[in-house]
Amino acid sequence: xxxxxxxxxxxxxxxxxxxxxxxxxxxxxxxxxxxxxxxxxxxxxxxxxxxxxxxxxxxxxxxxxxxxxxxxxxxxxxxxxxxxxxxxxxxxxxxxxxxxxxxxxxxxxxxxxxxxxxxxxxxxxxxxxxxxxxxxxxxxxxxxxxxxxxxxxxxxxxxxxxxxxxxxxxxxxxxxxxxxxxxxxxxxxxxxxxxxxxxxxxxxxxxxxxxxxxxxxxxxxxxxxxxxxxxxxxxxxxxxxxxxxxxxxxxxxxxxxxxxxxxxxxxxxxxxxxxxxxxxxxxxxxxxxxxxxxxxxxxxxxxxxxxxxxxxxxxxxxxxxxxxxxxxxxxxxxxxxxxxxxxxxxxxxxxxxxxxxx
Length: 358
Ligand code: PMP
Prior knowledge:
Blueprint: E1 27-28, H1 40-49, H2 62-72, E2 79-82, H3 84-96, E3 103-106, H4 112-119, E4 124-127, E5 146-150, H5 162-170, E6 177-180, E7 201-206, E8 219-222, H6 225-238, H7 245-256, H8 258-281, E9 285-286, E10 293-297, H9 303-312, E11 315-316, E12 328-332, H10 336-352
Parallel strand pairs: 1-11, 3-4, 3-5, 5-6, 6-7
Antiparallel strand pairs: 2-8, 7-8, 9-10, 10-12
Bound molecules: 4'-deoxy-4'-aminopyridoxal-5'-phosphate.
4'-deoxy-4'-aminopyridoxal-5'-phosphate binds near residues 85, 110 and 154.
């Protein structure tokens, strides 16, 4: 820390993204990227747009917003586009929380939420998940604060039903409820259709996972136009050109070929279920996942050790040190080939320990 760094950030612990190693080629199953590259049209669209990089991008992102609104059956005024969904989440902490309105979210969820709360200097309360790592819906009824729920949750992969979300929305008419649907396209139910009925609902989605665009940094918020206006007030007060020309062009091409994305999601869901069965067969306990990752633990090997030994064998997964989840690893669902390698390496580890017949 330099001697100039504001004291208000002295205790700030920054978010630590998953490793992006440069030292060797890993089977990379640690950051929940899509197993497949974007449609070829995406690269072409971005390359063509690069000729206009001397000009600022459209701060209203109108072409992409119109295209996305059409795809989702919404109006463009019901959408705000952001630099990854992290940005709209951060805007929501800024816009809808303050010293009287704390942020409320599970103790085990997306690790960026407490970091946003701290950097935005708003109070927050972490509500423990139940023993089985599911959300207890009652804890969020008539809550005094802005609610942030990842659905499916991360890193568990467990989804809430739409009925449960409706109960939370109905009992919190004076609070914004943010539903972070980063992984929703891998098997959960989206509450996008509810934004017309509930003016306290903000749905957050991303192109990073189901649309193979993590490197393009494209996310969005969907809500009634008043909430969107608030988020735009924050956006125009921080970075009106938050989406660059290449990403705007890539986003439109990506939506034009959305059937390609949907097909890849179906493949990933199928691969996830095959991998889940294989891991269960090796003695792992695997939580029921509606996402593009599995959260798994083995009763005989500590999570940190599984992570380390897999890494030594060239497979990267994500381990979290949190007390209640340190037995687990979060394993992104890659291609069928990548998942076969993962299962083979885990089998090797178990054999090395004499836990399976060689
Ligand atoms: N929400 C959740 C639950 C996530 O896991 C992630 C990705 N790490 C994000 C939001 C943010 O993703 P992005 O900024 O790439 O849209």
